[in-house]
Design brief:
The complex is a heterodimer of chains A (100) and B (722). With 100 residues, chain A is mainly α. Chain A is built from 3 helices and no strands. Classes of the chains: A mainly alpha (100), B mainly alpha (722).
Chain lengths: 100, 722
């Protein structure tokens, strides 16, 4: 049986990839995908611990996360469509109206 | 029916309960004449006025009759006036021999003067071209009688004061009766100013009277005569100076109302009123109120010998000084005015010395002969006026004018006088020889004048002699003053008689003077009889008047008749008349006025000094009027404007306020409050400038800070908080 630390290591790698991608990529869609990656890294950590401790709580949380992520994507894609319509671009750096 | 109005008391019927009528009937007469006088015509007005005054006289006579049965008198309550706690003032009428004496004089002489005035004012209103004012005159006249009755019947100092002020008001109204003229009938404010002067000078005296009343209220707890007199000895023992203050304050009131030094200056100017006013108010009745007041207050005065001496001295000085002023006057009424002041001085001196009977006796006889003299002078004035310009509705004067071809042939009326000095019918220099023209007026006038001079057996002799007799025993200084005054009295009386009645007429008007109608001469004859015989009521051996007043006055002792005193005074009078006669006999031949013979003797300086009344008015003008003006100017300009306005308000108040507000506005508001707010705003702005650099607008930057925050928090949880 694969030890839990392996899963945790993988989840950390995935989360790091996602976080770096969120910080460094300029395409909004890619950022969204990176966010999904981070969420799923967290899911992976949940289920790995759920298996180790033989408790269903972690698995239950994963379902919640997936549901929320789905809802979030629906809203997020709608935002991206609207941004594209006004800016004719999905480059996140064109959204600088909040500059002080 | 007669018995319906007779109340029964003790020993028989009395009429005391009718006493209020002496006030209310004249008051009713005045009201009727004020309301309806203009509609009912001169005859109606005269009837109402004379009937009202006559009723007052009849009621007074009834009081006299009742007093003969009940000499102790009565107090007739009219109304409860003031009640404050224990302090009570009733308006009650004190009916005793003293007040009834005054009532009889006021209503008796008053009624005669009313009758006279019905004819006199007939001419006067026509010469002043305002016949509608006839009713107003008699309204005031009746009102005066009512007020005088309140004065003499009041049973307290306060009710007396009400009457005192009431007669002062009537005096003011009647002096200024022709307020739009001067005494020559020219448009002027002179008469109005004379009225104002009388009123203002009397205020000074009334101020003293009020202070006396206040003092009485404070120390005696009452202002009713009996209450005060009962406590005189008690208060005299406890606070002797209070009685001195009261008596001297009362004396100040007396000098105002009875025209004594130093407040006599209003009376000569009061001659601006119509002549019946001078006779009634400024000779016979109102001005004697002061004498009555002192007599009424006899109990107080007798407890304070210093005050008695002061009153006697004031009276004696006034008698002499005013008599000296009378010798140099040309106005027939001015002579009588100064004479009145002088005679009032005699009365005040008498009551001051404690010779109350003598003073009251002279008051009564003086009322007779001085009313006679004033009415006589009025008759002379009207006689000249009628001859000077005959009225269209005066047939006698018209006929005379036609016969002699003098006076106004033209139709201009008064305009005749324009362009040269107006004819003055009161100036004795315009008279002369009137004895032949107007015999009734002249002979009655001569009787009055000789009574004034004090020739026996006329009324003035007896009363003046009694005063001199008492003075010789009580106050020799005052006796000397009064004897000198009597000497001068005989002098100015003779001078006046010669100038007015003897010799040649010195003007057209005097040459054709017209005797006055019967209403006037009848009154003159009646008063002449009184002036001739009135003295016998208190002649030595009779002393009816003294016994009469005995019931009221504290102590009345009668000095025996002294032939020396009577001889000296009669001798002085005769000598003085002889001197005057020899001085003025030359004037009889004059057909025109030259210089006054007395002026040649005295020199123009002294004569002018006497004629201008010792420059008393000028002195008051210089000291009081100018002084008052200067004080007022000082207060207005220096104290009010320069000090209060400029210095205190502008410099101190406004200046301080401005400096304070400038300080608050600049250093405090701008320097502290504003600066604080500005610096705070600047600091916030500076911080904001720093902080806005963080707001790059790049979402990734925000995300990075979120990550870093998470890393920091996790680091803290993992390594520090463990």
């Amino acid at each position: 049986m694969v030890p839990t630390s392996f899963y945790i290591f993988l989840a950390a790698v995935l989360f790091t990839i996602g976080a770096v991608a969120v910080l460094f990529r300029r395409n909004t869609l890619v950022i969204y995908m990176a966010v999904e990656l981070m969420l799923n890294a967290a899911n992976l950590a949940f289920v790995a611990f759920a298996r180790q401790f033989e408790a269903l709580d972690g698995q239950l949380f994963v379902f919640f996360v997936m549901t929320v992520a789905a809802a979030e994507v629906a809203v997020g894609l709608a935002l991206i469509v609207t941004i594209f319509r006004t800016k004719h671009s999905v480059d996140i750096d064109t959204m600088r109206e909040m500059k002080g | 029916m007669f018995f319906d109005i007779v109340a029964h008391a003790g020993g028989g019927p009395t009429f005391f309960h009718l006493a209020p009528l002496v006030v209310f009937v004249p008051l009713l007469g005045a009201t009727l004449n004020f309301l309806f006088g203009r509609r009912i015509g001169e005859r109606g007005v005269a009837t109402i006025a004379v009937a009202a005054a006559g009723t007052a006289f009849v009621v007074s006579v009834l009081q006299w009759l009742s007093l003969r049965v009940h000499p102790e008198g009565a107090t007739q309550l009219v109304v409860d006036w003031i009640t404050i706690g224990d302090f009570q003032v009733r308006w009650a009428q004190l009916i005793d021999t003293l007040s009834v004496t005054m009532m009889l004089v006021v209503s008796g002489v008053g009624t005669l003067i009313h009758i006279y005035a019905t004819a006199y004012m007939h001419y006067d209103v026509r010469y002043k071209e305002d016949p509608r004012r006839y009713a107003r005159f008699f309204g005031f006249f009746n009102l005066f009688i009512a007020m005088m009755m309140i004065l003499v019947t009041g049973n307290s100092y306060l009710t007396l004061f009400v009457g005192w002020e009431g007669v002062g008001l009537c005096s003011f109204l009647l002096i200024g009766f022709w307020y739009e003229f001067d005494i020559l009938g020219r448009p002027s404010t002179a008469n109005a100013r004379a009225a104002k002067k009388a009123f203002v000078v009397n205020r000074v005296g009334d101020f003293g009277f009020l202070l006396a009343i206040f003092t009485l209220f404070w120390y005696f707890g009452t202002v009713e005569f009996h209450g005060v007199f009962e406590k005189v000895h008690e208060v005299a023992a406890a606070h002797p100076q209070v009685l001195l203050a009261v008596t001297l304050f009362l004396l100040l009131g007396v000098t105002g109302k009875s025209a004594q030094i130093p407040l006599f200056v209003w009376l000569p100017d009061a001659m601006a009123g119509p002549t019946p006013v001078s006779a009634l108010i400024h000779a016979a009745t109102m001005v004697t109120a002061g004498v009555y007041l002192i007599t009424r207050s006899a109990e107080i005065y007798m407890a304070v010998p210093q005050a008695q001496a002061a009153v006697a001295l004031v009276g004696g000085l006034t008698a002499l000084v005013a008599a000296s002023m009378a010798v140099a006057q040309y106005d027939i009424k001015k002579v009588l005015a100064y004479s009145t002041i002088s005679q009032l001085g005699f009365m005040v001196a008498a009551v001051g010395m404690g010779a109350f009977v003598a003073g009251m006796f002279h008051l009564v006889t003086h009322a007779f002969f001085k009313a006679l003299l004033f009415l006589g002078s009025g008759s002379v004035i009207i006689a000249l006026e009628r001859a000077h310009h005959p009225l269209p509705d005066d047939p006698e004067a018209q006929a005379l004018a036609a016969r002699h071809g003098h006076g106004h042939h033209d139709d201009h009326g008064h305009d005749h006088d324009h362009g040269h000095a107006p004819f003055d019918p009161q100036d004795m220099r315009n008279m002369g020889g009137l004895l032949r023209r107007i015999p009734v007026t002249s002979w009655t006038y001569i009787i009055g004048a000789l009574a004034l001079a004090g020739l026996p057996p006329l009324a003035g002799f007896w009363s003046k002699d009694e005063i001199l007799l008492e003075a010789k025993h009580l106050q020799p200084t005052v006796y000397a003053l009064l004897a000198a005054a009597a000497f001068l009295t005989a002098f100015y009386v003779t001078r006046q008689l010669v100038l007015v009645f003897l010799g040649q007429p010195r003007s057209e008007a005097a040459a054709h003077a017209i005797e006055s109608p019967k209403a006037m001469t009848g009154v003159l004859v009646t008063l002449a009889v009184l002036a001739a015989l009135g003295g016998f009521m208190n002649a030595p051996g009779v002393h009816a008047f003294g016994h009469w007043l005995e019931h009221t006055l504290p102590e009345v002792e009668t000095l025996p008749f002294d032939l020396t005193v009577a001889g000296i005074s009669t001798g002085l009078a005769l000598l003085s008349m002889f001197i005057a006669w020899s001085l003025y006999k030359g004037v009889r031949a004059w057909s025109q006025w030259q210089h006054d013979p007395l002026q040649k003797v005295l020199g123009p300086g002294l004569f002018g000094f006497l004629q201008r009344a010792w420059y008393w008015d000028e002195a008051y003008l210089a000291v009081f009027v100018r002084g008052y003006d200067a004080l007022a100017a000082f207060l207005a300009h220096t104290v009010d404007w320069d000090f209060w306005h400029d210095w205190f308000h502008e410099t101190i108040v406004a200046g301080t306020y401005q400096r304070l507000s400038r300080f608050l506005a600049r250093p405090v508001d701008l320097g502290v409050v504003d600066r604080l707010a500005n610096e705070l705003a600047g600091a916030v702005k500076g911080l904001a400038l720093v902080l806005r650099g963080l707001q790059t607008g790049y979402v990734r930057n925000y995300a990075l800070s979120v990550f870093l925050g998470v890393v920091v928090m996790l680091g803290y949880l993992l390594w520090v908080a463990r």
